[in-house]
Write a structure and sequence with these properties.
Layout lengths: L12 E8 L2 E8 L7 E6 L10 H9 L2 E6 L19 H16 L7 E6 L1 H20 L10 E5 L8 H13 L5 H15 L8 H13 L2 H13 L4 H9 L4 E6 L7 H11 L2 E5 L6 H4 L1 H12 L1
Parallel strand pairs: 3-4, 3-5, 5-6, 6-7, 7-8
Antiparallel strand pairs: 1-2, 2-4
Helix pairs in contact: 1-11, 2-3, 4-7
């Protein structure tokens, strides 16, 4: 999971709930400083939340962007049904992203909208883009263009996660029906204590948040998303056609990544014809680990 470096919202940012045609979603919003240049929708990954992007809010807003980070359905403060696996497929979550996009587009002063997905969220936004592109193509030559002016895939890959990470994810899927989230959390903490890696330990405030966020997950959402991650199809060729048709893409990662090997992400960027940025001294969450460099890369892409 991503670990935000802090939890205090910057000046001009606030928590809110976005009302869409597919329900309400918890979000963080930072308003642009000075003249607005556009807006961005940021979608978190597996076991993550809107707070994963908290360190990006200030630099992106300072550059003139209205930034909205959300909890996906089943995550932290958005919630969702406990007994409906269909609510958490990538197709359903992609439909949520499209509904969120429609809500943002209807706001005053939104401007051009940039779309970003982190980790599992990258495959969710890919699904949203492909569904929107298919619907636009079916509508014929006179149809409206895609509602996004750029796409960023952050720390995500073309298909299933790395086999070692898939093994851990399958273990989680197997125990979720029989163990409580609190019981699983305690096992995770014992494993981390045994690792001896003190560099990974967050502040007490952030640690309490991570515990609270974990317990707020909908178990069925974790099971369904985890099942996708261990067997995700490669849809890069389909997405490449959309990128070639006029949706500029950026593939951004750290120099190391436990979920998808960095060379695999580079190869995906080449297949997409996408811009490629590797953030130094960052792992699977450059948004939280190196937010200044990550914001710089995003602003260059958006410009």
């Amino acid at each position: 999971m991503s670990t935000p470096p802090f939890l205090t919202l910057p000046p001009g940012a606030r928590a809110l709930r976005l009302v869409t045609a597919r329900g309400e979603f918890a979000a963080l919003r930072a308003e642009p400083v000075g003249a607005a240049r556009g807006s961005a929708l940021l979608v978190p990954g597996f076991t993550g939340s809107k707070e994963d992007f908290i360190a990006l809010l200030e630099p992106l807003a300072a550059a003139g962007y209205r930034v909205t980070a959300v909890d996906q359905r089943g995550q932290y403060e958005t919630g969702g049904p406990h007994d409906d696996p269909a609510a958490y497929t990538v197709a359903a979550l992609g439909a949520d992203v499209r509904a969120l996009t429609a809500t943002l587009a209807a706001e005053d002063g939104t401007g051009p909208l940039h779309l970003l997905g982190h980790s599992f969220g990258g495959q969710v936004v890919r699904e949203a883009v492909l569904a929107e592109a298919a619907e636009t193509a079916a509508a014929g030559p006179g149809a409206a263009r895609l509602p996004w002016v750029s796409l960023t895939l952050m720390a995500t890959g073309p298909g299933a996660i790395d086999p070692a990470e898939a093994k851990r994810t399958r273990l989680l899927i197997d125990v979720l029906p029989t163990m409580s989230l609190e019981e699983i959390w305690q096992v995770i903490q014992q494993m981390e204590e045994g690792s001896g890696d003190r560099a990974r330990r967050p502040s007490p405030e952030v640690a309490a948040f991570l515990h609270r966020r974990w317990l707020a997950n909908v178990p069925q959402a974790l099971i369904t998303a985890g099942g996708h991650l261990v067997a995700a199809p490669d849809r890069v060729a389909e997405l490449a056609a959309t990128v070639a048709a006029g949706l500029p893409a950026l593939v951004l990662s750290g120099v190391r990544d436990y979920a998808w090997p960095v060379p695999e992400q580079t190869a995906m960027a080449e297949r997409l014809g996408a811009r490629r940025v590797v953030v130094e001294d960052a792992g699977h969450s450059p948004n939280a680990e190196q937010p200044a460099a990550t914001a710089e890369a995003l602003l260059a892409h958006w410009a």
